[in-house]
Specification:
Helix content: 40-55%
CATH architecture of the largest domain: 3-Layer(aba) Sandwich
Order of helices and strands: HHEHHEHEHEHEHEEEHHHEEEHEEEHHH
Structural class: alpha/beta
Distance between the termini: 46 Å
Largest sheet: 7 strands, mixed
Bound molecules: pyridoxal-5'-phosphate
Strand content: 5-15%
Number of strands: 14
Mean pLDDT: 95
Number of helices: 15
Number of domains: 2
Radius of gyration: 21 Å
CATH superfamily of the largest domain: Type I PLP-dependent aspartate aminotransferase-like (Major domain)
Length: 411
């Protein structure tokens, strides 16, 4: 029966997130406490107005246009134009069941090589394999905030000048929690060599400083912006994301539309109708408050872990940090993470899942193990989120950090 499965699929292994969930379950079944720092999803509820709109639209039962509901695409275009002085129209937007599916279809249609920074989000690599494209992994450094330099990109592209290249750039970043500071240089090199950029901005609304720059500001004609509701709106399970594709890339948009129509058809209708309100109503208070909570928790974790045993870059957006544990005890980061969960109950994802070589003792820490709804509802009048509030509403994060720190000091 195994022969019925294509080799290209057989080579893929189950995602590390699933493995860590299994390990978590095993320990919990034994009655042990687990600090769930492995899995990353928004801890907050979808804003009430948007939830109500879903209820109001539950009767919507017709297939919608394959590019997405026109009113939603118009709302998305206005939202993007307001944010970044662009001139997108509804026709530049394609709605998908999460950006993950749209990225997968982009891999399927793209003819050329894929440039992936190390670290990269866990799905870019497997999707590139399924798209049968060659991947160039680009090692980054903490001193460049875990993003590639323009020179590194240039070095790769110069070796294959006849090929097309597609660069994935994700800022704020999963897993490092950092923001790319050299967008201008990267935009220029992309322009010079006609490199297509997929700018994964799924965490951009959760940038801890007020402004979040986009590479599309430096190379608008060569950049597809990818974002959606999953992170800032607490709606990962709603499965709604979109690409904003400039007119200069309309052939790509047209091919994506065909692939969409031959795969998911269109995103579920009630969700599309309800999502209009996510882009047209004012959610600034919700975003401000959720961002503040994430920032304060992220800073707490950062301040309390960083030491000569644990190196970390400061969190700048989203809900992750990427600690490096200084030790000679383990051969691989997976071995280290297994030891950490067994000795402390803290679940982390190994750096090797994000493209790092196995012997780098890096891991992704997601600081979302708290009840976001409770946190929001009980702190609406608070001007400041101090340690008392954190210990009341994010006790697992504080406890897990203390266990991890202790572990690192004693290996
Ligand atoms: C960096 C990054 N890009 C894309 C996605 C996928 O998001 P969506 O829910 O829109 O498919 C995620 C989700 O974890 C992510 O972390």
């Amino acid at each position: 029966m195994n022969k019925m499965i294509k080799d290209i699929v057989k080579k893929l292994k189950p995602s590390a997130t699933l493995q860590i969930n299994e390990e978590t379950k095993r320990l919990q079944d034994q009655g042990k406490k687990v600090y769930k720092f492995g899995f990353g999803q928004s801890p907050f509820p979808v804003p009430e107005i948007v939830r109500n709109e879903l209820i109001n639209n539950v009767h919507q039962n017709k297939y919608l246009p394959m590019q997405g509901l026109i009113e939603l695409r118009e709302a998305v275009a206005v939202y993007l134009n307001k944010k970044s002085k662009k001139k997108f129209r509804a026709d530049n937007i394609i709605i998908g069941p999460g950006t993950k599916e749209l990225m997968f279809l982009l891999h399927i249609l793209f003819e050329g090589d894929i440039l992936l920074p190390v670290p990269s989000w866990v799905s870019y690599g497997p999707q590139a394999i399924l798209g049968r494209n060659k991947v160039h992994w680009i090692e980054t450094t903490s001193s460049n905030n875990w993003f590639p330099t323009a020179q590194q990109i240039e070095n790769i592209v110069q070796l294959n000048k006849n090929k097309n290249h597609l660069l994935f750039l994700n800022s704020p970043n999963n897993p490092s929690g950092t923001i790319c500071k050299n967008l201008n240089d990267l935009g220029n090199v992309a322009k010079k060599y006609n490199i297509l950029i997929l700018s994964d901005e799924i965490y951009s609304e959760l940038s801890f400083s007020d402004e979040c720059d986009s590479i599309s500001n430096y190379n608008p004609e060569g950049t597809i912006i990818s974002t959606g509701l999953s992170k800032w709106c607490g709606a990962g399970g709603w499965r709604l994301g979109f690409f904003a594709i400039p007119d200069s890339l309309k052939n790509i948009k047209n091919s994506l539309k065909i692939l969409a129509s031959e795969s998911f058809t269109s995103v579920n209708s009630p969700i599309q109708y309800a999502s209009i309100s996510a882009f047209t109503k004012d959610h600034s208070n919700y975003v401000k408050r959720t961002k503040k909570i994430l920032k304060e928790i992220g800073m707490y974790v950062y301040e309390n872990l960083k030491s000569n045993k644990i190196l970390i870059n400061k969190p700048e957006g989203g809900f992750y940090l990427m600690p490096e544990f200084i030790n000679n005890k383990f051969q691989t980061s997976s071995e280290m993470c297994k030891s950490i969960i067994n000795e402390t109950g803290v679940a982390l994802l190994p750096g090797s899942e994000f493209g790092f070589s196995e012997n780098k003792m890096l891991a992704r820490l997601s600081f979302t193990d708290f009840d976001g709804e409770k946190f929001l509802n009980n702190t609406s009048g608070c001007k400041e989120i101090n340690q008392d509030i954190l210990s009341k509403f994010a006790p697992n994060v504080l406890e897990g950090v203390s266990k991890l720190k202790n572990w690192a000091e004693n290996i």
